[in-house]
Fold:
Amino acid sequence: MGVKDLIARRFKEICGERGITTNELATLSGVTPSTAYSMMDPNRRDISVVTVKKFCDGLEITLGEFFSTPEFDSLEQEIK
Structure:
């Protein structure tokens, strides 16, 4: 699994735990729903660090909390 897929999966996981839809995540984060849906779409996966930070802010978590998972820790290096 690539980093973009893992980021989308992590946001889906957190939203699921909190009962928040993708549209609600966008509203909480101050981004357009199209930005949120674009990030969740496996065919597009347009993800920027700024957007990840906005989503974390909307969810009231830090970037450290978001990325502090065994899955992120075990990602293979992108440079081969």
In short: The domain at 3-70 is CATH 1.10.260.40 (434 Repressor (Amino-terminal Domain)). The chain has one domain: 3-70. Residues 26 and 33 are 5 Å apart (CA to CA).
